[in-house]
Backbone:
C-alpha cells in the first residue's frame, strides 16, 4: 500500500513555536500531498510536492521530501491558534494515514 | 462552484435499516472517492471512481456496503443492513481531470443505534 503514515500522533505547542510532523510511505510515488482537517470538517489541501522536488514553501508551511528514505516532513512556522487541526499526508492513491493532531496553546 | 456537496449532514438510524449517503462532486471533476473516518481506524478509503466507473473497491468493508455513480454529478454509498459499528463520518471527495488535489465534502455523520 502507498498509504502515508504520520508521526507523531499528537503534538502540543505554544503559539509562536514551530510544529514539525513527519510522513513515511512504502512504495515509489509521483507526488505527496499534505492536508489539514479542522474539527468536524472535511480535509483541505495544503501543499503538493513532486517526487523530483526536495523542498517546497507555501506561506508559513515548509514541506520536504526525501525519496531515498520514503519520508516527508511538514513544518508550520510561527504557529497560531488557528493552526490547531489534524494534518494528513497522502500519496498518489489518495490513501491517508491516521494523521497528526496539532494543538496550539495560546 | 459550491464544492463537493454531501447529504445528509447527519443521519441517525436503527440497526438493520438501509442507509443511503449522497454526494455531488464538483462539476467537471472526473474522479470521486468515498472515505470513512473513525477514531479507531482513521480515514479509510472505501472506493473510488474514475469517469463514473468503480476502479478500486478493495476498501469496502463488507457486502453490506455498495456504491454507485450513475452519472458524473452524483454518487451514492449504501449500507444495507446497517450495524452500530458502521457509525462514523463518511466523506466524499473529487479530483479534476489530470489533477491530484482532492476536494472534500463536509461529511455525513452516521450514527447507527
Residues:
Amino acid at each position: 500500500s502507498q498509504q502515508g503514515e504520520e508521526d507523531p500522533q499528537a503534538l502540543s505547542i505554544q503559539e509562536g513555536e514551530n510544529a514539525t510532523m513527519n510522513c513515511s510511505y512504502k512504495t515509489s510515488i509521483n507526488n505527496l500531498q499534505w492536508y489539514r482537517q479542522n474539527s468536524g470538517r472535511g480535509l483541505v489541501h495544503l501543499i503538493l510536492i513532486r517526487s523530483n522536488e526536495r523542498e517546497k514553501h507555501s506561506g508559513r508551511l515548509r514541506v520536504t521530501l526525501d525519496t531515498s528514505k520514503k519520508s516527508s516532513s511538514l513544518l508550520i512556522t510561527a504557529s497560531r491558534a488557528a493552526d490547531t487541526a489534524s494534518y494528513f499526508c497522502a500519496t498518489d492513491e489518495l490513501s491517508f494515514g491516521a494523521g497528526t493532531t496539532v494543538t496550539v496553546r495560546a | 462552484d459550491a464544492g463537493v456537496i454531501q447529504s445528509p449532514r447527519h443521519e441517525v438510524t436503527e440497526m438493520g435499516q438501509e442507509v443511503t449517503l449522497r454526494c455531488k462532486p464538483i462539476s467537471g471533476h472526473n474522479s470521486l472517492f468515498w472515505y470513512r473516518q473513525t477514531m479507531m481506524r482513521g480515514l479509510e478509503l472505501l472506493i473510488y471512481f474514475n469517469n463514473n466507473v468503480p476502479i478500486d473497491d478493495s476498501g469496502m468493508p463488507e457486502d453490506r456496503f455498495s456504491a454507485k455513480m450513475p452519472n458524473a454529478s452524483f454518487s451514492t454509498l449504501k449500507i444495507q443492513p446497517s450495524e452500530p459499528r458502521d457509525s462514523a463520518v463518511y466523506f466524499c471527495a473529487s479530483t479534476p481531470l489530470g489533477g491530484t488535489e482532492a476536494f472534500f465534502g463536509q461529511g455525513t455523520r452516521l450514527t447507527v443505534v
In short: Residues 69 and 101 of chain B are 20 Å apart (CA to CA). The two ends of chain B are 35 Å apart (CA to CA).
